[in-house]
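--- STAGE predict ---
source: upstream dedup step, 1 unique chain passed
mode: sequence only
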Amino acid sequence: MFQLNNFYDNNNMICINQLGQYKVFEHQKDLSVSPYAAETAYFAAEMNVKKRQVLVEMNNTGCTVQAGAMQWMLGNIQMQSGVKGVGGFLGGMVKGAVTGESAVKPEYFGQGIMMLEPTYKHITMVDVAQWGSIVLDDGLFLACDNTVQNKVTARSNLSSAVLGGEGLFNTMLTGQGIAVLESPVPQNELIQFNLQDDVVKIDGNMAIAWSGSLEFTVEKSGKSLLGSAVSGEGLVNVYRGTGTILMAPTAK
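--- STAGE serialize ---
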């Protein structure tokens, strides 16, 4: 049995979103700022530059998080490394090297609550089952239910990796459960494309997540190289097929 004071009733910590076992809390002000940084902190808060934290309320459930993301735990929560022997560790090192994620993602399970470290990034939560499979841009993954499988997917062609600015390998999530992502923009600014045997062309690597069912290539913006060059657009990232894309309206 435990009691938690000055948290849920703290006026400076506001829950701005929740999905499944996850709640997103936003610090309205930095109350411990020094006098020398007060001006910067004031204007940062006015421009929505605030600390955000994810609270995981586990009810005999589990979650996988980025290494080092846990800040504190309360209750009967156990942690395991998520590494099964030397082979599992070396495999994790390879996955971490090619995707920009941590090599080992610890798994937590039990009954209680766990708070993740503060971040100035924005928090986006998705239901993985609704995507079928979701491919993430590098560094986006923060946490997910332990019923979600986390693996590495490679580009189907070299052009999308070399010219598309998205890398040769990405993290792919599949299964049933919720995933928590660190987004460069607020969730209400993300543009969502839902494709049914159609195509989206994006100038630059502004897509932060997309369905694993989509084909990703890099192509000329026009019918010819000369036309593409004079238009000022050049090459564009192309997503074809049936699925969903989340795009940040500004460069990441």
